[in-house]
Amino acid sequence: MLENSLFGILALFLLGGSLGMIFFTQTLFSAISFMFAMLALAGMFALLENSFLFLAQIMVSVGAVVVLSMLVIVSVNLKASNLPHESAKGRWIIFSALLVTPLAMLIYKALAHTHTLFEKTDEGYGSLKMMGATLFSDWVLPFEIVSVLLLAAMVGAIMIGRKEKRHDT
Amino acid sequence: MTPDNFFLLATLLFSIGLIGVVSRRNLFVVYMSIELMLSAINLVLATFSRLHGDMHGSVMVLLIIAVIAAEAALFLAMVVHLYRLKRTVDSDDFNTLAQTKEEI
């Protein structure tokens, strides 16, 4: 019973946050509601008894990614006159919602009814120990590739983000 | 709290992200919508991992979180760079590749 009400509250935050993200005109308000959505998603991972993903979601997605984007939004410091002029925003959103609806129904049909109930999990599911054992036995190569990807992204971000220098003489 | 609830929620999240990408022109909102779509995929993977009781899906979610972090760094650097070039974050203004030679 407690789980059901928790699920309802978290789903409310998740959907409200993501809807607020696409409806707000001010970019910082969008980022704040996106942060609420990401926090609620971390709660969803906790409801799925996956404590490590809960931690990773809070630390990486909320703590690093959302805060980084908020910092960038604040430092870019857009004035209201500099924002994109989206006068027909509501109409665009309704129109694209109509377009997306069949795809959403298709995805839901493909996903739903595979299982009807959550069964009880084995001992140790979602723990750090099981996660590490799986990550470093079956998933070593993808893990290493991701580490190279992160390094490349870091170098690329520095290269793209630095100020262009004039080549004098 | 059945698996179908989680799947419905993930579907709605993915759709909202797709709507955001299609209908908004603010680059920051487009970026956050892409992240929302990736997070919806995370939710589906975590739900399947919980259903089958093995950790492979959760490891995939962890790797996708790392990819999200890499994407965030690159996308934000790109947005700052584009903002320095044209003093705007309107995605309609960055259409140089769509123009013909005469228009430039």
Description:
The complex is a heterodimer of chains A (169) and B (104). Chain A has helices at residues 2-23, 27-47, 51-76, 89-111, 128-135, 140-161. Chain A has 169 residues and is mainly alpha-helical. In chain A, helix 1 (2-23) packs antiparallel against helix 2 and helix 2 (27-47) packs antiparallel against helix 3. Chain B is mainly alpha-helical. Chain B has one domain: Orthogonal Bundle (Helix Hairpins). Helix content of chain B is 75%, strand content 0%. Chain B is built from 3 helices and no strands. Chain B has helices at residues 3-23, 27-52, 56-86. In chain B, helix 2 (27-52) packs antiparallel against helix 3. Chains A and B meet through helix 1, helix 2, helix 3, helix 4 and helix 5 of A and helix 1, helix 2 and helix 3 of B.
What's the short version?
The complex is a heterodimer of chains A (169) and B (104). Chain A has 169 residues and is an all-alpha fold.
Tally of contiguous helical segments of chain A: 6
Q: How far apart lie the N and C ends of chain A?
A: 74 Å
Q: Give the averaged pLDDT of chain A, no decimals.
A: 89
Uncertain stretches of chain B: none
Rounded to the nearest angstrom, the radius of gyration of chain B is 18 Å
